[in-house]
Amino acid sequence: MTDHPGKEYEDRLGQAVEAAFAALDLDAKARLLAGQDMWSLPALPEAGVGSLVMSDGPVGVRGVRWTAADPSVALPSPTALAASWDPELARRAGVLLAQEARRKGVHVLLAPTVNLHRSPLGGRHFETYSEDPYLTGAIGTGYVRGVQSGGVGTTVKHFAGNDAETERFTVDNRIDARTLREVYLAPFETITAEARPWGVMTAYNSVNGTTMTEHHELVTGVLRGEWGFDGVNVSDWLAARSTGPALTAGLDLAMPGPQTVFGPALAAAVRAGEVDEKYVDAAVRRVLRLAGRVGILDGVGPAVEPGQLPAEVDGAAVAREVARRGFVLLRNAPAADGTPVLPLGPEPGTVALIGAAAREARALGGGSATVFPTHLTSPLEGLRAALGEEAVTFRVGADPQAELGPATQGFDLHAVCRDAEGAVLGTAPVPGGLVRWVGSDLPEGVTHDTLHTIEIAGTYTPPESGRHTFGTRGLGAFRLTVGGRELWSGTQGPGPARDPFEAFFGDPTERATADLAAGTPVDISLTYVPARRTDVPLEGVSFSLVHLLPQRDADELIAEAVEAARQAETAVVVVATTEAVESEGFDRTSLALPGRQDDLVRAVAAANPRTVVVVNAGSPVEMAWRGEAAAVLLTWFPGQEGGSALADVLLGDEEPGGRLPTTWPARLADAPVTVTTPTDGRLDYTEGVFVGHAAWERAGTTPAYPFGHGLGYTDWAYETLRAEGRTVTVGLRNTGTRPGRETVQLYLAPPPAAPGEPERPAQRLAGFALAEAGPGESTEVTVELPDRAFQTWDEAAGGWSHRPGRYEVRAARSAADPRLTLALQED
Ligand code: BGC
User: Are residues 141 and 229 in the same domain?
Assistant: First the structure.
């Protein structure tokens, strides 16, 4: 399969672009550069251009509707994909996503997210790959190749420096030139060179004083000029704030619409002589080229013809494979009989499965990356399917979700839309009690102009007796009744941050409680009059009814779990973060597991020496108890098939394949960067190029688990290491008793800096490869060290500088576990 259509296609594409271009007047051209709604561009039939549709991204393709009524395959979190250290797996994930996009009529996927794990507090840490630019670039390259091989575009995002969420719309990240080039721009550069993405998304934040949608130097200078990016530059949603400066800096598309800084405002600016039309023309040609590539431009076929599309793949199977290939076995201590506790084997006897997230799967992180799968396999379902109902005893133990969540189990709800006079305009299903209608995605018969009140109405049949808590999410006026009785009415206004997406991602708020009896249905009604926000340039309605089951005494829950653990042969405790911890629009404030989960783990591990802790989190959490549990398995947010993949790995049908793509701190205080809150609007990246494992190494602090760490179910001996030029070959042998896969990592340690030369990290990841072998078998992997590994960015010269000298190549199992070393003279 070739990655890119050849010159012949590009020529035909160029002709089709010119033909369409000639049919457009200034108004039409300006319209093409602005969203017509939340997700799409207008069609321009006079020029033979169809409407281009975009959608998030990155773990699935949500489509143009934000509802469980329009489901998608949900893959594991990007951290999990990166933990596979397998660009080929990322490519296959991309092939599946392209298939999903085609099914949903989506032309461009708003992914991958390739910002870096600068701090574990970053709210979207789970949605990005790694702390390491090289690993991020490699995984992102595989992903983009996969999606685009399916004829669907990508937007590599968020260019650049969107590594945290606090004040994300306005923060000015101060990053020196060398650090930008060597660290934060590096994944974008690699992906542009290796995968030729059809799009890029510019971030909300500023870098060194200029907001990214107006950053001429980085967009037109570096991305397009130096790297030759020939795709479309779309703003992050609502990131474009000016007409002339954004366009002339190199922004092509202002999203979403219909009110944007481009469109009619752009045509007017050209007519007023404020913007030279040549910039409009260049942007239009780029958008037309994208339209051609995705097959919605007359006169040219898509870049990937239907006959060249990859074969259909089974989404559930890919999701399950990515999940287990991303699971990282952090610890696997010998049990009483001297063998490691994992794998449990096909007949492990009785298992006490403990933790709320074992029953209510936490498969995805929150925010714009959310998709709605048709089903979610929880650990409880996965283990019961594998071992039988009787073998698995479930106890909640501790509930991190002592927070309001979607109104799902026991709720039967629909929405009724009324006009200002109270006449019914239309109705719609509202799975989970969530109403999120943006742009033209409204129930039949309803328009934003006529819609006044929405009522979520229906019944709730409680699964448990006791005090139930109800709440709301969204901005506007509410009235909540349960069983015909008004429990609360009031208005929710915007918070101080005034994030335009607050109604989407803001916290749910508790409003009232009601004592209800199990099995007895009660009527529920939540009426809502939306707050009209004039500062948000798109029309939408977003609110929800949220609910929390009666809460049991926390000590009692732990005691019940301990009892179950004591009686079972093995205890499996699933601990998790929640959407209030890991999502978009805010950063984390702590790495502690929410609720009483730490106490739960300690108590269970004390009761059963064969305790396996499953960590269901998209980014690092503190695990002070890690030495007390026999095994610790990190499953990230494992996607829709997480429970089945967990059974595969616990029982030993498959190895856990992951290696940490980010250093796992023992305590937040040890992390290299612990502040993501700007001071006076500025965030200084003072650590420079010392990011991730390089920073840990320099500080001399020992993390809980180093970058690259992860165990399989077999052992490996690293036997040989040789280099011919920059081609490095590692020979290794599987010394265990079962077949396995090893992630061979190559770190390159530079010679000490000569006087006047910039200091470099003590080592950098310069390559990796996956080796597979059966028990007792030897194998070899070969890795080509890239030019960049021997270069630094020379700020004064404005270019890369080659750094000759005597380097050390380290073949390693993690950043902290080198097995063989070799001197390499670079001239
Ligand atoms: C996010 C983007 C996303 C866009 C559309 C923004 O808030 O930062 O990553 O693609 O919304 O949902």
Answer: yes
What is the number of structural domains in the chain? 4
Domain range holding 505? Answer: 405-548
Query: Is 668 inside a domain boundary?
Result: no
Q: Does 57 sit in the ligand 1 pocket, CB within 6 Å?
A: yes
Q: What is the pLDDT of residues 71-112, one digit of tens each?
A: 999 999 999 999 999 999 999 999 999 999 999 999 999 999
Given the residues 236, 252, 399, 598, the one annotated as active site? 236
- The model's pTM is 0.93
> Pairing state of beta strands 818-826 and 424-429?
unpaired
The answer to whether position 695 is within a domain reads: no
Please name the residue whose Cα sits nearest to atom 11 of ligand 1.
237
Report d(CA 554, CA 307) in Å as an integer.
Answer: 59
> Among residues 506, 562, 509, 498, which one has the least CA distance to residue 535?
498
Candidate of 201, 368, 436 to mutate for ligand 1, largest count of ligand atoms within 8 Å of Cβ: 368
Residues 289 and 432 in one domain: no
pLDDT in tens, 153-189: 999 999 999 999 999 999 999 999 999 999 999 999 9
- Compute the distance from residue 238 Cα to the ligand 1 centre, in Å: 9
Nearest of 710, 794, 577 to residue 126 by alpha carbon: 577
Q: Are residues 523 and 601 in the same domain?
A: no
Ligand 1: does its nearest atom lie under 6 Å from the Cβ of 237?
yes
Mutate to test the pocket of ligand 1, among 235, 236, 370 (most ligand atoms within 8 A of CB): 236
Residue with tokens 């870049």: 303
- Amino acid letter for position 80: A
Could you read off the pLDDT of 525-573 as tens digits, one per residue? Answer: 999 998 776 666 677 888 999 999 998 899 999 999 999 999 999 999 9
Does 134 reside within a domain? yes
Sign (positive/negative) of CA torsion 166, 170, 174, 180? positive
If asked whether residues 419 and 522 sit together in one domain, one would say yes
- For a mutational test of ligand 1's pocket, the pick from 66, 165, 237, i.e. the residue with the most ligand atoms closer than 8 A to its C-beta, is 237
Q: Which atom of ligand 1 is nearest to the CA of 158?
A: 9
Q: Is 236 a catalytic residue?
A: yes
Q: Would you list the DSSP string of 243-265?
A: SHHHHHHT--BB-S-SS-SSTHH
Q: Does any ligand 1 atom lie closer than 6 A to the CB of residue 128?
A: no
Domain boundary among 304, 333, 357: 304
- Three-state secondary structure call for residue 541: strand
CA–CA distance, 198 with 98 (Å, rounded to integer): 14
* Rounded (to 5) percent helix, strand, coil in the chain: 25, 25, 45
Verify whether ligand 1 is closer than 6 Å to residue 381 (CB atom): no
Cβ–ligand 1 contact at 110 (below 6 Å):
yes
Is there an atom of ligand 1 within 6 Å of 501 CB? Answer: yes
Under 8 Å between Cβ of 416 and 427: yes
CA 71 to chain centre: 18
Whether residue 148 is found in the same domain as residue 180: yes
Pick from 397, 243, 330: which is nearest to 708 by CA? 330
Asked if the structure places residue 699 within a domain, the reply is: no
